[in-house]
Amino acid sequence: MVKKMNAAVMYGPNDIRYEEVDRPICPEGGFVLKVKAIGLCGSDIRNLTTDSRKGNYPYIYGHEVVGEVCEVYPEVENYKVGQMIYVYPEAHCLKCENCRSGHNEQCTEVEHYTDRPGGFADYIAYTKKRVDRGATYVLPDGVDPILATLAEPMSSTYACVENINVTLGDTVAIIGAGPIGIFLSILSKMRGAEKVILIDINQARLDMASKFDIDYLINSSEKDPVEEVLKLTNSIGANKVISANPSTIAQQQSILMAKKSGIVVFFGGVPKGALTEIDTNIIHYNGLWIYGHYGANSIQVQKAFELAISKRFPAREIITHVLPLRDINEAIELTKKGEALKVVLLPSED
Ligand SMILES: [Zn+2]
Ligand SMILES: [Zn+2]
Fold it and tell me: Domain segments of the chain: what residues?
């Protein structure tokens, strides 16, 4: 008889039902995790509230997974029942040209997490491919699984500030005060940035950001953020500007607030098909370097995990809400309104 479990199943945009489904069976050469804690990501919210799978439902999302190994296929040696692990959502092949050149985030043979059911459930199964590729990390004793879920959202921000070498003396302007903007701000300060300016249109998010070590918070629905950044930098502009939000307007602004020879990063994706109108002469004459950013390479994934669970990182302040998985719809609302910074969901105990 197939065992049952609870899961938050998506039936369509904004139609997420917490219900009983079949518990996954252990794939040949794979393993099964009992999900202990799972983060709710901005991308989950976008996926759960739009027709992200083009009618291909029901589907279980969830990719910021920390869980306990509860079943291992007989010959598998590197996983043991009882281990608590964090699983990075993408399993890079480590063999393709992009992987070998250090760009695992562009792996051409990646097993993407949406290929299989995700972790908004009591249990999640992983295949032999995952066992072969790894990208799973054992939690040291005493590390709280709730805090370890931050390793995933940390990874891409860690990679971003490392790739653009945020360093001593830098002024960094970040547009978007969601969890990603907060991570970018904290990591920029840790790397020695002199001034971090965090910008958002939502005052509730800025209020939440105020408890972190961030030098300036700007509400761009009240003040022109470009003028404000210029004011704070003696009309010079920021060394590094990161647009970490889905707005094309913010991308336009980001170019205008960068210092000559500065760096601008388009971190957040904009809605599919949206085009950003920019005066490329500003890029040309000011000698700007414009980067796109997505994901992290496999070493950055590992380092981000180690930092996320270390005492140096204020994980407890970032996770504002811990809710049972059955309250996922409420979690989405709280995050959308800016009342919650980061919600971690807990599946049922049995
Ligand atoms: Zn995520
Ligand atoms: Zn690859």
Answer: 4-150+313-346, 155-292
CA of 69 to the centre of ligand 2 (A): 26
CA of 148 to the centre of ligand 2 (A): 25
pLDDT tens figures, 280-308? 999 999 999 999 999 999 999 999 999 99
Determine the average pLDDT of the residues in 49-66.
Answer: 95
Distance of CA 131 from the midpoint of ligand 2 (Å) = 15
333 Cα–ligand 2 center, Å: 36
- Among the bound ligands, the one closest to the CA of 97: 2
Q: Reduced to 3 states, what is the DSSP secondary structure of residue 264?
A: strand
Amino acid making up residue 260: K
DSSP track, 115-141:
GS--SSBSEEEE-HHHHHH--EEEPPT
Average of pLDDT values for 198-226? 96
Ligand nearest to the CA of 178: 1
pLDDT-based confidence at residue 270 (cuts at 50, 70, 90):
confident
The top-level CATH class assigned to 155-292 is: alpha beta
| Ligand approaching nearest to the C-alpha of 103 | 2
Amino acid 60: pLDDT? 98
Residues 111-165: pLDDT tens digits? 888 889 999 999 999 999 999 999 999 999 999 999 999 999 999 999 999 999 9
**Nearest-ligand number for the alpha carbon of 152:** 1
Tell how far the Cα of 99 is from the centroid of ligand 2, in angstroms.
4
Q: Specify the CATH number for 4-150+313-346; select among 3.90.180.10, 1.10.150.20, 3.40.50.720, 3.40.50.2000.
A: 3.90.180.10
**Is the pLDDT confidence value at 350 over 70?**
no
Identify each DSSP E strand in the chain by its residue range: 4-12, 15-22, 31-39, 64-72, 84-87, 123-126, 136-138, 171-175, 195-200, 216-219, 238-243, 258-266, 289-292, 319-324, 342-346
103 CA → ligand 2 middle, Å? 8
